[in-house]
Design brief:
By secondary structure, the protein is an alpha/beta fold. The protein folds into four domains: about 325 residues, Cytochrome p450 (Orthogonal Bundle), CATH 1.10.630.10; about 160 residues, Flavodoxin domain (Rossmann fold), CATH 3.40.50; about 200 residues, Up-down Bundle (NADPH-cytochrome p450 Reductase, Chain A, domain 3); about 150 residues, Rossmann fold (3-Layer(aba) Sandwich). It has 41 helices and 34 strands. Strand 13, helix 20 and strand 14 form a beta-alpha-beta unit. Helix 11 packs across helix 14 and helix 40 crosses helix 41. The radius of gyration is 31 Å and the shape is globular. Keywords: FAD, Flavoprotein, FMN, Heme, Iron, Metal-binding, Monooxygenase, NADP, Oxidoreductase, Transport. InterPro entries: Bifunctional_P450_P450_red, CysJ-like_FAD-binding, Cyt_P450, Cyt_P450_CS, Cyt_P450_sf, FAD-bd_FR_type, Flavodoxin/NO_synth, Flavoprot_Pyr_Nucl_cyt_Rdtase. One of its GO terms (molecular function) is NADPH-hemoprotein reductase activity.
Length: about 1050
């Protein structure tokens, strides 16, 4: 770079054009455009494939196995995965210290490269597949020795001239593969043994990566990794996973041993945060200066030297024209030593990474693990190993570089340091007092999450009683909620406020508009709100309109008022994620409201919404404490059984009452339906759309509209289903009740939070309560788990539940465990019906895109229902509530439902001559069936093209109808993507869209509207990318500008999505 600049051309052997990039801006273009720049060269490397096969590091982008492996392995390297592996890393550190103590006691130097190799090798063995190599105890392992031999052989190869390497290529490959053969057989034996154990039900609960790979299905394709690829993954982990981290550790300690000032700062932070106590995962995250040191070490000596991606098409890279097939070599070393971004780039200076100095620096200026979709999957594990080693080593030893050291480096695969030795000296007792308070340094590098974690410790130690809350403290709690989650959260806060001696005004955001004077004299306004397809919830639309149109009135209401906003959303809706709550927060801030938390906080329903809510709740109560002059006090919600106050009084019915209730069940249901805005519609048709050969089920259900009910094509139908009878029976068994037992239900008190689904004062059977009133299959929350743990009377079960709570994301979220499932497993945990109704959320309606047109069938509405039925990761049979309910309805039976105006732009253009492009794979075709009937009835003349997708002919739903539309000219073209029909090739709608790029561009230039319906996580983003590419190429612009062109169409209301969460 210093000789040729930040980008230059070269030729790779034998004759491949390449550009070498050392510029962060150009690097960003390569990494952020994976459809253009792809990793496709490994399949041509016999050296790589002969050694580690097709692992996540060495499989190419165009090989399907890479995507499957990446999606399956991703959870293993999440934050929750790191929590599971943390204790294994600590155990390996302790082993290493035993060896170091022995050497220190005899005044021997530490061979740093060898020590860190054995450490990282043992970590990978235990984390990867529960195998203890004991390399730290024995000093080596045959597998590790084979890797050393291969590295030496590879080094010798690199020293050869080009002509020598050509002449010796065949013998090199033969010897290279022979060196690795014992290791391949070792790994194959490990995989085979684990498979045999799993088939016998042994080690099925193991948390290592091997069990994950052998038992988990890819969430996108439903396929598992074949054993031979599992072998390749382990070969990759054992080579790359240990080698790169051992290099990073060796260089880290080499640098630290030569910079006493940095070592002192590290020691001060470790003693302040950890003290004399054992290192914990939570404290590890607070070692912010240690992270700065690691980042700087990785910048100076990135273990991987470069990454390569090849251009899949002609493109632009900055101002440079790049031809298809050109290789881009992003020099990680060059990026990290670019003097434009790193003044004095060879100086070791961890302070570069302090927030105030790192702010504004291009994030691609140092990417030692690379980034993007081909970034290093094991980055988190490597960083955790480095943090643990750094903190615990400095806590235990003084470090100095030994005089034997003569550092040198080779690059057999990763950067490999040699001849580096340390002198260690055990430290005396700490000079600093252990303290939990933050230092200025910690504050400088901390963030809002660190503050929340710090608060979480305090709240376990301090509590607030009613007497400490100022007299007559009142909260205004507002919610915007379609599905009930935000309303439930708001109710929980209101109940907690009552328990603290406060009062609260609880209402929807729209209801608040008639009562804005409640803000006067309140302690705070608390808003909990969701986003619905980018629009406000139904009961928040008027409030949002006020914020948009009347800023003066907003300022009049909220100026100087303490407030906080919590957003509920699902990150699968990338474009509209948290848009409404974020807008509320921004507007109230602009109106000079006083935010109780430092930043806008939110929760993600696609991961751990419950955890996010609890973290926000703590931050909010702490902010309110400060606002009320109660600094240092924590308004701590009750945990466990002590905090479970039933919201209902449930009493058995007498014999006569029971008989009377049985006669009035129909009346009770009708009253309940009316209270919830539902109408009872009669089923007119219910037919299976899949062929007899299909292993799936999709139903077309037609329902008669009641009274004055109306709808438009593009609306949704909300269906209030019922829990399947199998699930209801299990819940009744857990409670020790018969399905026929009858109970009278009423609210426990005026303050009690009760669900509108449960009819107040009704007499209902257990079957009816459990079938119609509560969610029985929702993943259990942490708060629910804490209560069950406290209720466990068996010590063994209590310990097991505590372990489940400590590994919540893996044991509960990932396994999708339900409260009923856990109660059925742990019999010493007892709850009453009243408590169960308090613990479980109300049964929510499910929303379906309407698949009919009022112009064709004004008196009834139809929906297209994909029936959900399958095993959860924990082995529980999961039955979709509404889908199984609708599929089981017979003609003449009633369904509780209501029409839901989406309040979006998902409507046909007003003019019938406007062309439309419809993209709807699977049940995503439902609204387009309605659109096409609408266009036919209105005699629209605009061109219509449909892209539909399915697996094969067996699940080509509505085939005859869709082909009929084409025959009658309603559809000009219908393109069908079969993902399983062609052997070895999966075709999805985005592929067909790109194939029709010329036609699509003509339609868009003629003013066409694009409608996309279906999966939000995978399909919708891929379709968007396809259209972005078409538009960019059509206008002769760089592909990177295609996204902005789609944004323009969205603003013009010509690119419209109706998508839902998957998985």
């Amino acid at each position: 770079m210093h000789e040729h600049g930040p980008i230059f051309r070269m030729t790779l052997p034998p004759n491949t054009d390449a550009v070498v990039i050392c510029d962060p801006e150009l690097t960003a273009q390569v990494i952020e455009n994976p459809s253009v720049w792809q990793k496709t060269h490994f399949k041509h490397s016999q050296v790589v494939r002969g050694f580690v096969g097709r692992g996540v590091f060495t499989a190419d982008d165009d090989e399907e196995i890479w995507g499957i492996a990446h999606r399956i392995l991703l959870p293993a390297f999440s934050n929750q995965g790191m929590k599971l592996y943390f204790h294994l890393v600590l155990e390996c550190v302790d082993r290493l210290f035993k060896e170091w103590d022995r050497l220190v006691s005899t005044s021997q130097p530490i061979n740093l490269t060898r020590s860190t190799e054995r450490f990282t090798f043992d970590v990978i063995g235990r984390v990867g597949f529960g195998y203890d190599f004991k390399a730290l105890e024995t000093g080596t392992h045959p597998y590790l020795e084979q890797i050393h031999l291969s590295s030496e052989y590879s080094d010798a190869r690199w020293q050869q001239s080009f002509f020598q390497s050509v002449l010796t290529e065949s013998s090199f490959l033969r010897n290279w593969c022979a060196l690795n053969e014992p290791n391949i057989k070792f790994v194959e034996r490990i995989v085979a043994e684990r498979l045999a154990e799993l088939e016998k039900g042994i080690r099925v609960q193991e948390k290592d990566i091997l069990t994950l790979m052998l038992t988990t299905k890819d969430p996108q394709t439903g396929e598992k990794l074949p054993p031979d690829n599992v072998r390749d993954q382990i070969l990759t982990f054992l080579l790359a996973g240990h080698d790169s981290t051992s290099t990073a550790l060796t260089v880290l300690f080499m640098l630290l041993s030569q910079h006493g000032d940095v070592e002192r700062k590290v020691l001060e932070e470790v003693e302040r945060v950890v003290g004399s106590e054992p290192l914990t995962f939570e404290k590890l995250g607070r070692l912010q200066y240690c992270t700065c040191v690691i980042n700087e070490s990785l910048r100076l000596f990135p273990p991987a030297q470069a990454t390569r991606k090849d251009a899949a098409e002609d493109t632009m890279l900055g101002p440079y024209k790049i031809s298809k097939g050109t290789a881009s070599i992003v020099s990680l070393w060059g990026l990290a030593h670019n003097p434009e971004y790193w003044p004095d780039p060879w100086r070791f200076d961890p302070d570069r990474w302090l927030p105030e100095k790192a702010k504004g620096r291009n994030s691609y200026a140092s990417i030692p693990f690379s980034v993007g979709h081909r970034g290093c999957l094991g980055r988190q594990l490597s960083i955790m190993e480095q943090r643990c080693m750094l903190a615990m080593t400095v806590q235990r030893y003084h470090l100095r570089l030994h005089s034997l050291s003569k550092p040198s480096f080779t690059t057999p695969l990763f950067l490999k340091p040699h001849n580096i030795f340390l002198s260690l000296e055990r430290r005396a007792c700490s000079r600093l007092q252990t303290q939990e308070a933050k230092s200025p340094l910690t504050s400088a590098v901390g963030d809002e999450n660190a503050r929340l974690n710090s608060g979480a410790r305090a709240k376990r130690q301090i509590s607030t009683d009613k007497a400490s809350v100022p007299f007559n403290t009142r909260l205004v709690i507002l919610y915007g909620s379609n599905m009930g989650t935000c309303e439930t959260f708001a109710g929980e806060l209101a109940l907690h406020a009552v328990n603290l001696g406060m009062t609260s005004d609880l209402m929807s955001l729209d209801s608040f508009l008639d009562k804005t004077d409640v803000v006067n004299g309140c302690a705070a306004v608390i808003v909990i709100c969701a986003t619905y397809n980018g629009t406000p919830p139904d009961n928040a639309a008027k409030f949002i309109s006020l914020l948009e149109k009347e800023p003066d009135k907003v300022a009049e209401i909220f100026t100087d008022t303490p407030f906080t906003v919590f957003g509920c959303g699902n990150s699968q809706w990338v474009r509209t994620y948290q848009s409404i709550p974020r807008f509320i927060d921004k507007t109230l801030t602009a109106a000079q409201g006083k935010r109780l938390t430092a930043n806008f906080l939110y929760g993600d329903a696609d991961s751990t919404l419950d955890d996010d809510f609890q973290a926000w709740k703590f931050a909010m109560w702490e902010g309110l404490s400060d606002s009320l002059g109660m600094s240092g006090a924590s308004m701590k919600p009750d945990d466990g059984a002590a905090g479970l106050e039933p919201a209902y009084v449930v009493t058995p019915c007498q014999a006569q009452e029971k008989l009377e209730a049985e006669k009035r069940i129909g009346e009770i249901r009708s009253k309940w339906a009316i209270q919830n805005g539902l109408f009872l519609g009669k089923v007119l048709k219910n037919k299976e759309l899949q062929s007899a050969n299909s292993d799936r089920s999709t139903h077309h259900v037609e329902i008669e509209l009641a009274g004055a009910q109306k709808y438009s094509a593009g609306d949704h139908l909300a269906v209030q289903g019922g829990n399947p009878l199998e699930v209801v029976r299990q819940a009744a068994k857990v409670l020790g009740l018969e399905l026929s037992d009858m109970f009278h239900i009423r609210k426990a008190s005026l303050e009690a939070v009760s669900s509108s689904i449960i009819p107040e004062g009704a007499k209902l059977s257990v079957e009816m309560i459990l079938m119609w009133c509560v969610e029985l299959q929702q993943t259990m929350s942490k708060a629910q788990l804490a209560i069950l743990m406290d209720r466990a009377s068996c010590p063994y079960e209590k310990k097991a539940l505590e372990a489940m709570r400590n590994a919540y994301n893996v044991e509960v979220v990932k396994s999708k465990r339900t409260l009923i499932e856990v109660l059925d497993t742990y019999n010493s945990v007892q709850v009453t019906l009243a408590e169960l109704l308090t613990l479980l959320p109300p049964l929510r309606p499910r929303y379906y895109s309407i698949s009919s047109s009022p112009l064709a069938t004004a008196g009834h509405v139809s929906v297209t229902v994909g029936v959900v039925r399958g095993d959860s990761p924990a082995g529980r049979l999961h039955l979709g509530v509404a889908s199984n309910f609708l599929a089981s309805r017979k003609v003449g039976q009633l369904v509780g439902c209501f029409v839901k105006d989406t309040k979006s732009n998902f409507r046909l253009p007003a003019a019938g001559d406007v062309p439309i492009i419809l993209v709807g794979p699977g049940t995503g075709v439902a609204p387009f069936r309605g659109f096409l009937y609408d266009r036919e009835a209105s005699k629209a003349t605009g061109t219509a093209v449909l892209f539909f997708g399915c697996r094969n002919d067996d699940d080509f739903i509505y085939r005859e109808e869709l082909e009929g539309f084409k025959e009658r000219g309603v559809l000009k073209d219908m393109h069908v993507a079969f993902s399983r029909k062609l052997s070895g090739r999966k075709v999805y709608v985005q592929h067909l869209i790109e194939q029709q790029s010329e036609e699509m561009l003509k339609m868009l230039e003629a003013g066409a509207y694009i409608y996309v319906c279906g999966d939000a996580k995978h399909m919708a983003p891929d379709v968007r990318k396809a259209f972005a590419k078409i538009l960019a190429e059509g206008k002769g612009l760089p592909l990177s500008e295609g996204d902005a062109l789609i944004d323009e169409l969205t603003i013009q209301k010509r690119y419209i999505e109706d998508v839902w969460a998957s998985g």
